[in-house]
Amino acid sequence: MRMQLNYLKSRRITEGATLRLLSILKMLAQIHVFLGILMLILSALADYVSSRKNTIRLNGLLECCSFYFVVMGSVGLCGAASYRRGLVIAILVMSVHAILIFVPGIVIVSSFDIHFHKHECWGSCDWHLLATSLPQNSQCQILCGTNVDEHKRSVMTRLGTDYRLDAGLIALAGLELLFAIATFLISLKIICSKITQQPIVEMMPLTAPQVQQADQSNKQEP
């Protein structure tokens, strides 16, 4: 009897801890969706500003990274709501991708944009800067600051975008990195927490002699 009660009590504690982890995962997933939407808006706005000022930037790259964060948050919401181990494993893998690939990609591209814009850099190539393949014996040059006169500016293309947009993207990417690390740890803890689905021992009613014996044992205990 006492062993059954101890088993039920430990089972409730384990399930309660797992439910708390799932609620934390749900909160983190909502944050991922929110940050992803913000970065998606800033990335689209940076591309729009770049097109208006006729500057060169990697259009679409930051939008893809931001959309990945939205998808990761959506998967986390589904996994936290249904507690499907497959979805929890999926968000764990996606958080690793976010930490190692997508967040560094946003930081690197935005840092280059800030650097080029701050130093007033211009570039020119005998092939298109966004071409998928490079011709043989091609040439490119990047000039910054006072090295660019009016004649060179007329034949070269401005590099970089408004630093305020890129600084906002870098700040949001830093937050995304922290929350992605937290998501990885919470997901790993949920996966490692094994709730054993053991059958509960059916409780049989005690007979009169067993009741008397239990009362006597309780009286003997200090």
From TrEMBL:
**Residues annotated as transmembrane:** 21-46, 58-80, 87-109, 167-188
**Cellular component per GO, a single term:** membrane
Protein's UniProt keywords contain Ribonucleoprotein: no
The membrane topology of this protein is: Multi-pass membrane protein
Q: Which UniProt keywords apply?
A: Membrane, Transmembrane, Transmembrane helix
Q: Does the keyword Transmembrane helix apply?
A: yes
Which locations, inside or outside the cell, does it occupy?
Membrane
> InterPro entries attached here?
CD20-like (IPR007237)
Protein name, per record: Uncharacterized protein
